[in-house]
Design goal:
By secondary structure, the protein is of the alpha+beta class. It folds into two domains: 59-173, no CATH class; 183-280, VSR Endonuclease (Endonuclease, Chain A). It is 45% helix and 21% strand. The strands form four sheets. A four-stranded mixed β-sheet has the order 9-10-11-12, with helices on both faces. A hairpin with a 2-residue loop joins strand 9 and strand 10. Helix 5 (118-126) runs antiparallel to helix 6 (131-143) and helix 9 packs across helix 12 (265-280). The longest helix has 16 residues, at 233-248. The chain is elongated. Residues 227-231 have low confidence and may be disordered.
Length: 281
């Protein structure tokens, strides 16, 4: 992928560029942006072409930046690019976000592509996504070691008043928010809160096993079994072995299915409430 200004800087004349276009060595993608050799582009090529088409200082942002970091799939085929407010670039297939200022600290490169940092990307997503998908993006960024809650909170403190910051802060400070690894687990947390349980530890190792939720003060462990990971007899046998180890250590392991958490939360609530009363006593 190459832009007109780059070719001119290399010493090519306009006539030489037109000749290469006519011969099929350069393929116009946008005005002043060409693919080399063949016109078919990968998604990475589409991102680079959109950046070159907008401005030399343009960066990948919003949905496209989230996809570049691997924390969220793009919702459509349009490429999201941020440019300075003074830039006036409109291109088909490019969603241009004009900014009065974009801090140097908010821009980095990933595989040579200029892109907003994970924290800046999450703030941008907060202006566009409902709470559930946004919470999922935060979780995914944490799983990929791109950001963690303390660092995200500090960054939000430095950006008070900016669009999206208040929404992210509300999610982080919500009493039921705990980093989890699946949508199933995120559905479980509000049920646990209604049962009177405090926010649990998540993804802890207990008795040699990694558990979904752990309340050390109650000696309570809860596992949420998603359909994808709990189908085979071998997996079920390992689950029984885990539960037996916890019981032998004096803990109470509970296991809820995908169906129960999604479609029968009342059963989950009753069970949690009863066990909490027994363990508290």
């Amino acid at each position: 992928m190459v832009a007109l200004f780059q070719l001119l800087a290399l010493g090519y004349t306009l006539e030489a560029i037109k000749w290469r276009v006519a011969k099929g060595r350069l393929h116009p993608i946008y005005r002043g942006v060409y693919a080399l050799g063949r016109p078919d582009l990968t998604r990475k090529g589409e991102w680079i072409a959109a950046i070159l088409a907008c401005a030399p200082t343009a960066v990948l942002s919003h949905d496209s930046a989230a996809a570049r970091w691997g924390i969220r799939l793009e919702r459509d085929k349009g490429v999201h690019v941020s440019v300075a407010a003074s830039a006036d670039r409109r291109r088909r297939g490019i969603v241009v976000h004009r900014r009065s200022a974009l801090r140097v600290a908010d821009i980095t490169r990933r595989d040579h592509i200029p892109v907003t940092t994970p924290i800046r990307t999450l703030i941008d997503l907060a202006t566009q996504l409902p709470p559930g998908p946004l919470e999922g993006a935060i979780n995914e960024a944490d799983k990929l070691d791109l950001v963690n809650p303390p660092r995200l909170r500090r960054a939000l403190d430095e950006r008070r008043g900016q669009p999206g910051v208040g929404i992210l802060r509300a999610i982080l400070e919500r009493s039921t928010f705990v980093l989890t690894e699946s949508e199933l687990e995120r559905r479980f947390l509000p049920i646990a809160a209604r049962a009177g349980l405090s926010p649990p530890l998540t993804q802890q190792r207990v008795n040699g096993f990694k558990v979904d939720f752990y309340w050390p003060d109650l000696g309570l462990i809860v596992e949420t079994d998603g359909l994808r990971y709990h189908r085979t007899p071998q997996q079920q046998s390992r689950d029984h072995h885990r539960d037996h180890a916890h019981v032998a250590a004096g803990l109470t392991p509970l296991r809820f299915t995908h169906w129960q958490v999604r479609y029968d939360p009342a059963h989950v609530l009753r069970t949690l409430s009863a066990v909490m009363r027994l363990r508290s006593a």
